[in-house]
């Protein structure tokens, strides 16, 4: 369901070198599948699509139904892996402007420390019935904890303590952490992020699925796509598109391409890009190694970053995510005055213009010394999303092991937290 097209990278690497990576990739894949590599206590994501039961999905769907019945808005409170997957899915499937059209509003908080943004959201909720979903694996992340306390307080004030409890949903580690203790103490409805699933690999747990279900997304279709990927991408050869992607990016990195630009021509893809950015950045960026993952939106960013990509330092490559056009076409009308000189396109579609832009950009960037990997992903729907996210998780695990790093820890993130805690007098 995903095709990795590497026909536009040969100017930078040669075929035999790429093929010589086969053994390293086989070992990396085996380390993931057999649980023999570094960080192997965080491999729960690997079989999540096939391992998630109907009963688990039913429980998520039932909670989502209750939230939709009782509330006009859900505030998802989490940061990093505890919100990016959900937001990515909702924007990818329901559009970036989903809150303008959907009766059920989904807001995100706890992913910053902005007083202005928190106050703005609180004001918006003043006359709205709302519920909250606090999402934190560790249960002690500052941004999430501060926002959770604020919105719990708002709920208490609005509904009274006992009624407020019915509007608080928690997704956290099933056994430990302050949020787990709070949940038990207060009796909140809760869902687990299994102990062996790390934040950025948790989109197929309730962490991603509950907000998706509240947004009206068919979570079974998402999981069906992910399950298909789990099965199809188990192939242990270069025919595996996840291997090809992992191999190509590692080879390009070894050849001096230190930045990967992930781009699509779909504005609704933006948060999938941010999710991907965290997945690869936090998984690979350690031990003095790692590709810098940058997410751009085309054609938008061609008008801001296009110059740098075309003629700046030749230290980058591009991964373009392509989707099959949706059935709904948009034609360019004829205008008899033709002052804008666009009549040569009259009767053509916007999709036709986009396709030509894509071909033109690809050729220009390749000619300019930027190798381009193309990931052909099919239609923009729930199955594709599930498949694509699993594809990226698997590619990331294989790529990181090939690079020689543990994909499942993030020791560097603790440094800023330590300083912040010291400054706060903790
Ligand atoms: O991938 C990760 O582990 C991180 O990005 C976490 O998801 C993020 O730091 C939030 O952590 P927590 O869910 O513990 O609040």
Task: Explain the overall architecture.
With about 425 residues, the chain is of the alpha/beta class. The chain has 2 domains: about 5-35 and about 225-405, Rossmann fold (3-Layer(aba) Sandwich), CATH 3.40.50.10490; about 50-215, Glucose-6-phosphate isomerase like protein, domain 1 (Rossmann fold). Helix content is about 50%, strand content about 15%. A 5-stranded mixed β-sheet has the order 1-10-9-7-8, with helices on both faces. β5 (about 170), α10 (about 180-185) and β6 form a beta-alpha-beta unit. α2 (about 20-35) crosses α17, α5 runs antiparallel to α14 (about 270-285) and α14 (about 270-285) runs parallel beside α17. The longest helix is centred in the last third of the chain and has 22 residues, at about 380-405. The N and C termini lie far apart (about 50 Å). The mean pLDDT is about 95. The structure holds 5-phosphoarabinonic acid (PA5).
Present the secondary structure layout.
Blueprint: E1 3-8, H1 15-19, H2 22-34, H3 48-51, H4 54-70, E2 73-77, H5 84-94, H6 98-101, E3 105-109, H7 115-124, E4 130-136, H8 142-159, H9 161-165, E5 168-172, H10 178-186, E6 189-192, H11 206-214, H12 219-232, H13 241-254, E7 259-264, H14 270-284, E8 292-297, H15 306-311, E9 316-322, H16 350-367, E10 372-376, H17 382-403, H18 413-423
Parallel strand pairs: 2-3, 2-4, 4-5, 5-6, 7-8, 7-9, 9-10
Antiparallel strand pairs: 1-10
The structure holds 5-phosphoarabinonic acid.
5-phosphoarabinonic acid (PA5) binds at residues 79-82, 136-138, 141, 144, 198-200, 278, 282, 410.
